Predict the structure.
Amino acid sequence: MRAYVAVAERSEELFDELSAAGATVLHTEGRLVLTEGGPRRAAWATNVWLDAERHGFASIKEASEILLSLGQRWHLFSQSHHRRAKLIEALLPPVEHAPLTFGARPPRAQLGSWTLLDANTLVASPHCSSQFPNGEVNFVEDRSAPPSRAYLKLWELFTLHGKRPATGDLCLDLGSSPGGWTWVMASLGARVISVDKAPLDPKVAKLPRVKYVQSSAFALDPATHPPVDWLFSDVICYPGRLLEHVERWIAAEKARNLVCTLKFQGDTDHDVARRFARIPGSNLAHLHHNKHELTWWRFG
Ligand SMILES: C[S@@+](CC[C@H](N)C(=O)[O-])C[C@H]1O[C@@H](n2cnc3c(N)ncnc32)[C@H](O)[C@@H]1O
């Protein structure tokens, strides 16, 4: 059995995604969806419990023994019966979750997840898609240098997927204002062409290796643009318009790595999300630092 924890307030999106993937839903409980089969990753899940099992138990001690027979590192995803769940949790080894310093290696040890379905039934999975509790990656934040908190999306992506711009890489940052992403790229030693209709924060605009271009992202023609190592887009626009633009960059073979935020206004455009996900070699996920957004990327 597999269990998915939906992104907060995005259970509908997760159901749609799982049914399109052919998963059979067995049970739902708040943000938790239990399925037979189903993919190892789901864009609208913060965490996938890969080998979930349902167990009946008679006492708190028995519940803790069941969990300890399955693994040693557990995170409680508590949605109901909180007091009883906390008593069981108190019998498990404590697990520290210190905020991560950007650049430090993320934890490698498996972290299991469990929850109570009712007073005498637990669901537990010793293996999950994320090593972070509920897939929530928290950083030691820099509250002074970056001009917006959007930088956390890139920190998260680079940390989880082990790839980031190298010193000297050329990055094109579309929809860059006020400059959180540009700040991340520049602080990694990359060269940045930072494009927005709105101005950059002056502190970011004067960073070395940053060139600001006041323009619409869509005015750039990939066919005539010099090649870039990284194409980033955090432009606020309809995802369909972004897809057309990304397809032009891919067809022109001008961007080795691509990272884009799909920003949904009102209803989620599932069709466009699926079309992004079908681009060969690419990935689509809701990062912990995304809002009503998905991050799509393709690393070369
Ligand atoms: C969410 S903000 C980007 C935040 C930025 N990544 C950061 O880290 O600070 C979205 C930006 O998209 C810009 N934008 C909207 N339409 C655009 C267009 N057609 N071309 C370029 N920028 C656009 C807006 O001006 C806004 O600054």
About this structure: Residues 148, 150-151, 174-181, 195-198, 216-218, 234-237 surround S-adenosylmethionine (CB under 6 Å). Helices lie at 11-20, 60-70, 82-89, 151-161, 180-187, 202-205, 239-252, 270-277.
